[in-house]
Specification:
Rossmann fold; alpha/beta; 3 domains; 434 Repressor (Amino-terminal Domain)
Length: 452
């Protein structure tokens, strides 16, 4: 979503870094470029004005740190100001007597129902909660069934709502059910409309007055741009929301809603949706997003994602194999599956400092296709061949190609790339100063055709 903004800012910063000294004119020129980039990204005009004035004030009166040149200091000011307008990290409040009630509101099509399921999974896996999903949208066709299907697929308790019951009655019955079933978190999926209207708001106000939820979260679609900010204003004025969730952040919109929301609404962004998978939900850390936008990476999130899919023991074993040149094709196949679960290749590359430009050139669909080809080739090998790639001679390569539905050339390419990657991995065994770039190179060499 922030590709265009990131590219423009990086171009401006490149000029700044090359300046030993900065004049007032240099700062004005850079700020004009930053202002244009933010407006092009659909950031609220008042937010942009305030942002640029704050950076200029700091830049003109700056005291240069010993470790930074003037250009780097301006970049630091931009980074700090981005964090400020994005708001503070504010987790969902769970420190209440159970069951904690989380009410989810928003317009139809914003992704409320999917978010409810993702949130339940997140709270169960990250916070050890026992959530109950409550379908309270009786108006949208199949809304109740959709949440029940999502709940069943994630093995999360879902309240058996009655389509003919009133939303408030459903919510009250669900609360009683949760208390009896020892479920400590109730997530209410309320009805949306195509636009804000009085009946919709009255219904939501009635539920809030009756149940007094601990959190009221507004779900906004990032693809709607500044309209999402206007929607948030409307909901907050009548419901006094506790936080905002921005979905579809993996889309190709300009991203201005994210950069405007917290500053304009004065309510924290608590979660961002970054994909369709059940675990494609992230707690919102302003400093991490600011670093991603400025091309500085987000190593902490990358590490957290990896930790969810790779145990510490497995990581140590893998590192030992890498340093001793014992990494096999079977290990490679296993790691590809882990990478698939962590997200798209481009999203992971963006979290590596200095790799933002390379990440923007990646075609995730093409990479996914290549990974499937590689997996088919490896799965067509015998156990011995996966352990000892050197024994794969011409006749074995022809058999593997036939079994995987690929060509001998593709098998040859995989084996050649795998051999090169093993050499790289041996050097990469211990993260040094350029360790993250080594990881990027390892990813780049991981799939035939990826670097061609």
């Amino acid at each position: 979503m922030f590709n265009s903004l990131s590219s423009k800012l990086e171009a401006t910063f490149k000029v700044l870094r090359n300046r030993g000294k900065l004049t007032a004119e240099d700062i004005d020129q850079s700020l004009q470029e930053i202002r244009t980039a933010l407006l092009d990204a659909d950031v609220n005009v008042h937010v942009v004005k305030e942002f640029c004035e704050a950076v200029k004030k700091q830049a003109l009166g700056m005291k240069v740190l010993k470790s930074l040149n003037p250009g780097q200091m301006v970049i630091k000011f931009v980074h700090d100001e981005l964090i400020r307008i994005l708001g503070q990290y504010t987790p969902v409040s769970l420190r209440h007597a159970p069951p904690v009630i989380i009410m989810v509101v928003g317009l139809q099509g914003s992704g409320k129902t999917t978010f409810c399921a993702k949130l339940a999974k997140h709270l169960r896996d990250e916070n050890k909660r026992r959530p109950l999903l409550v379908p309270a949208d009786i108006y949208r066709p199949a809304a109740i069934e959709q949440l029940q299907i999502l709940g069943n697929s994630l093995e999360i308790d879902t309240f058996p709502s009655d389509l003919n019951a009133k939303p408030l009655d459903i919510c009250e019955s669900a609360l009683t059910y949760a208390q009896r079933s020892n479920l400590d978190t109730v997530i209410l999926d309320t009805a949306g409309r195509l636009q804000i209207d009085a009946p919709m708001m009255n219904e939501l106000v009635g539920i809030i007055q009756a149940l007094n939820p601990h959190e009221v979260l507004l779900v906004c679609d990032a693809m709607t741009g500044q309209e999402a900010v206007n929607v948030a204003k409307g909901f907050d004025s009548q419901l006094d929301i506790d936080g905002i969730v921005i979905t579809k952040l993996d889309g190709d919109a300009r991203g201005g809603a994210v950069l405007s929301m917290a500053s304009v609404i004065k309510k924290p962004i608590k979660f961002i949706g970054v994909g369709e998978k059940p675990d494609a939900l992230e707690a919102f850390y302003p400093d991490r997003l600011a670093s991603r936008i400025l091309g500085m990476g987000d190593v902490l999130t990358l590490i957290e994602k990896a930790a969810k899919h790779v145990s510490l023991d497995d990581a140590k074993t893998l590192q030992k194999k890498m340093t001793k040149d014992q990494f096999t094709l079977q290990d490679f196949c296993d790691q590809m599956k882990v990478m698939k679960n962590m997200g798209s290749m481009s999203s992971m590359m963006k979290m590596i400092p200095g790799m933002n430009q390379m990440a923007q050139k990646i075609d995730d669909q093409q990479v996914d296709k290549q990974m499937k080809h590689v997996e088919a080739i490896i799965l067509s090998m015998t156990k011995e061949e996966r352990s000892e790639a050197d024994i794969i001679d011409g006749s074995r390569r022809r058999r593997i190609a036939k079994g995987s539905g690929t060509s001998v050339e593709e098998v040859n390419r995989l084996l050649k790339d795998f051999s090169e990657m093993r050499k790289m991995m041996k050097k990469f065994g211990k993260l040094g100063p350029n360790g993250m770039r080594g990881l990027a190179g390892m990813m780049k060499g991981a799939m035939p055709g990826f670097h061609r």
